[in-house]
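Thread title: Can someone regenerate the structure for this chain?

I was given the following input by a collaborator and told the matching structure tokens would be attached. They weren't. Posting the sequence so someone can regenerate them.
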Amino acid sequence: MPVRQLPENVVNRIAAGEVIERPASVVKELVENAIDAGATRVEVVISGGGRELIRVSDDGSGMSAEDLALSVERHATSKLDSEDLLNISTLGFRGEALPSIGAAARLSIVTRARGSENALEIRVEGGEKSGVRPAALAEGTRVEVRDLFYATPARLKFLKSEQAETAAAIEVIRRLALARPDVAFIIAAGERVIQYPLRGTDEEGVAARLADVIGGDARANTVPVKAEREGVRLSGLAGLPTFSKANSLSQYLFVNGRPVRDKVLLGALRGGYADLLHSGRHPVVALFIELDPHEVDVNVHPAKAEVRFRDSSLVRGLVVRALQETLSGGARRSATTGADRLVSFARPQSAPNFSAGWRGAASPYRGGLAEAAQAAFETLAQPSADARADLAPVLQADLERPLGAARAQLHETYIVAQTTDGLVIVDQHAAHERIVYEKLKRALDEKGIARQILLVPAVVDLDGSDAAALVARAGELAKLGLVLEPFGQGAVLVRETPALLGDSDTENLVRDLAEHIAEWDDTLPLERNLLAVASRISCHGSVRAGRRLKPEEMNALLREMERTENAGQCNHGRPTYVELKLFDIEKLFGRR
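Best answer:
Regenerated them for you:
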């Protein structure tokens, strides 16, 4: 077959297939154009999942007649002032969006340049362009796209349901709205109307916009992130590990104001939240990276969804270190959502019949509940004045601490502590598990983990393959304080264990490690695998649920939590404590 030049309409349709994958792609291109035009208000109307209608209106700078005619030509753009494709500061720059849309749909553009007395319109239908003619418009630009893919009907078969396409388009706008809190967005999709009001570009404005996009909980459960290294600046918000999601849709990453889904940055997120999230959970983040445009290539993907950094290790290291340092301080607190759920689930119940006693037995109290309770208090021995004077300063000092003073233990599992303005409920096993794990990490980094020699070495019978796997990793396990050796067929002999574990169940620990070590990923650095094993060891060496603690032990655990990094969640990402303010408690009892 001879080589021939493709007709212009075929070229445009091929380009449309690369740039316009679905209605969300159209929305992305048009909203980006509005932002690049200096708009402070963008309105988007979506009908039929974007197949029937997509309308984007803005109050930007508009276009002259010459610019309007050129805007629907391929490779015509106002966003490049030179041929330097690395010096790009706008969201769009290819000059392919409008002609590609016009090749696959019915496109109408109405615009009025600032300072102009008249508005102008141009239409493109299936690649056929009309002339520029007068129109009516107050200001800015309005772009309408109707009957998407009518000129390329084969693409319609690949679209999803109307609800799915609408959700994808809204998600695109959400990311752009978070990238530009200084622009107001209004979205009308069927009967839904979503508004993102104008916010500032400072930390408070970004936090407010994140709350607009994700929900009100985001503002109270994120911590600010800020770092800089060798000209790369990082800012934004990172969610507490206990404020995580089941999917990655709440991860918003921006490079020079451009929303991206970059593999380097996603890997950095996993590194920054390592040891803090349970498997299958994803952090909530909004991170903004600013760097010299020459240090990042945004021209590596037709949809501009990916970027390539000149020094990816620098960017990754900056993100990982900043997240670790931020979360080690901010993550000492737990997410507020636990207390919120508790308050929302608690509902006033019908008044119980206390006079009936327990299981129908006669009640020992003849008076009301208040009198019976008061009688119990009156029987308590009262401390002397000197004893009260000695006790008061200690109690007051503990009450003023972040986790307060221990007041009770429930079901030998939960510690109840009183603070100056509420109470805290602590899961003793989860909290101590994090404490032991952080101590193991520090010891591993500094001088090695101290070991204790067992008076009688423990023999643990295992499956032959499990025993062989443990023996093969004996050198690495010794670095964590666990010294073992083969002992016949299908058994290992444990001679030393980490001193931090104290009198732990060695047999169960070894069996758990044998199951876990089979999943050891040899592609990961040794340090990551060692930390994974350390997490398992700390779980077995921590205070177990069901153990009764003395008051001084409970208070010691609270103080240790306050000194420990990442104490807001255990190694598996579950919260270690829930805090209830007096305001929340008063809501439970109808006082608020």
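The longest strand covers residues 451-461.
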